[in-house]
Specification:
Largest sheet: none
Order of helices and strands: HHHHHHHH
Structural class: mainly alpha
Number of helices: 8
Radius of gyration: 25 Å
Helix content: over 70%
């Protein structure tokens, strides 16, 4: 992954930052800073990143569809098979997060790993792994809600608001 590494400055004979800051010429400082930023900023290939995201997201979705087909072939109806599929994908995502493999997959696939159910499971499980400093009770008990807490809160609030709007529309005879 050569593209994400920081580049070394091309010319080592350039004046140091301290030398430039001691000068009073603002334009020289600005030019030096702009060149420095250009030298150390990692470059990204947008097309390659999109292709990697598409590949990884497609693989995750294919695994999900394969599991769904497997559960249907086992004799479950579509609704039950879909529930088992979600449980399986969340479990696999949490397991891969715990093993440290999901982070490596996300580094390669970028946005492709944000397929809703697996990305959410990863974002819930990842902070819970960082419990070592606080201990198991406060570490896992608190950190697991870093992402899940706001999602649950806003989900409940929005559901309540939409329920009230639906009730009002129902009473007015619009729905």
């Amino acid at each position: 992954m050569q593209e994400n590494k920081k580049k070394e400055p091309e010319n080592m004979n350039k004046p140091s930052m301290k030398d430039v800051l001691n000068q009073t010429d603002v334009n020289t400082r600005q030019q030096f800073y702009n060149q420095y930023v250009k030298d150390v900023t990692p470059t990204h290939n947008c097309f390659a990143n999109v292709c990697k995201a598409f590949l990884i997201g497609g693989i995750i979705c294919t695994i999900g569809q394969g599991l769904l087909n497997l559960y249907i072939a086992m004799g479950f109806n579509k609704e039950v098979a879909a529930l088992y599929n979600i449980i399986s994908l969340v479990g696999l995502s949490a397991l891969l997060t715990g093993l440290g493999w999901y982070a490596k997959l996300a580094k390669f696939g970028g946005a492709g790993t944000l397929v809703p159910i697996t990305g959410f499971a990863n974002s819930v499980a990842a902070p819970a792994i960082e419990f070592k400093k606080e201990g198991q009770v406060f570490g896992i008990g608190c950190k697991i809600f870093n992402i899940a807490g706001p999602v649950i809160l806003y989900g409940i609030v929005i559901s309540w608001i939409l329920g009230v709007i639906y009730y009002i529309l129902l009473r007015l005879g619009i729905v």
